[in-house]
Design brief:
By secondary structure, this protein is mostly helical. The protein has eight helices and no strands. Helix 3 runs antiparallel to helix 4.
């Protein structure tokens, strides 16, 4: 077993432990379990970072399986969750980041034997992947915050008493700040990533886009992302609508990754 394999299973183990600890901490209202969740997620992210460095050093990125790129994506997602948890001084982001990091990493292992598309590396290709991953990763955090926002808002409007773990959930204002930060960081990154993808396609394929379904979904996501960014920055959108759009953006990204990549013909075999 190679070092990259050991590090893969190590980070998945810690993300799994962080998921269990988060669930216990949230439902059982246990501060100790919540601290363990942060520690496990941070340790998993450290192992994940070591995997990324080892993969770059040994040239693993030159010949990849279809699921390989889910590992860097889950790394970005975990990093975004840890960053926002520290920035907002709220560990709520880790309650949904750890499960998603574990899920995406597990899918990467599951798709390990599925051949990917021929890879033609280069600066534009790297920028395309990194920027898109950051855009999707931070929006995953915003989607989680948006889901909790909608649940909290519904409870408040129905005047239902906040009981159990709901008493420990962040305020609507805090959840909205997570969405705002994710949008401010994510949209420019995603836009740059899509632009680099089109330029890379023009250089290596002779056209700005292959015209397959994945390209069209990327443009739809970009349009929704742009709407969210504009409405927040120009019109000061807050609350329910940004929460819903964050969920739509992340859901569309998942559809593109798991449905389009596996069920439709596409040149984007990763």
């Amino acid at each position: 077993m190679e070092w990259t394999d050991i590090l893969t299973y190590l980070c998945l183990a810690f993300y799994g432990l962080a998921t269990v600890a988060s669930l216990i901490g949230l439902l059982g209202r246990s501060p100790r379990a919540k601290k363990l969740a942060v520690m496990f997620c941070s340790t998993g992210f450290a192992a994940h970072t070591a995997w990324l460095i080892a993969s770059l050093v040994d040239g693993s990125f030159s010949a990849v399986s279809r699921g390989f790129y889910l590992m860097p994506l889950s790394w970005v997602l975990a990093g975004a969750g840890l960053f926002m948890a520290r920035r907002q001084r709220q560990d709520i982001a880790l309650h949904f980041v750890s499960p998603w990091a574990f899920f995406l990493g597990s899918c990467a292992v599951g798709f390990a034997e599925t051949p990917g598309a021929p890879l033609i590396a280069g600066p534009l290709f790297v920028m395309h992947l990194v920027a898109v991953f950051v855009g999707v990763g931070v929006m995953a955090v915003a989607a989680g915050a948006g889901t909790i926002f909608l649940v909290q808002e519904k409870s408040i409007k129905s005047k239902a008493p906040l009981e159990g773990f709901r008493r420990d959930l962040p305020s609507l204002g805090t959840l909205d700040k997570v969405n705002a930060m994710a949008t401010k960081i994510g949209f420019p990154c995603y836009a740059v990533g899509v632009l680099c993808g089109f330029l890379w396609a023009r250089v290596h394929w002779g056209s700005f886009g292959s015209g397959d379904l994945k390209v069209w979904i990327s443009l739809i996501i970009l349009a929704i992302y742009a709407l969210l960014f504009h409405q927040r920055q120009a019109l000061g959108w807050k609350g329910r609508k940004p929460a819903i759009l964050a969920i739509v953006i992340f859901s569309a990204s998942l559809f593109s990754m798991f449905v389009v990549n596996t069920a439709f013909p596409t040149q984007h075999g990763f």
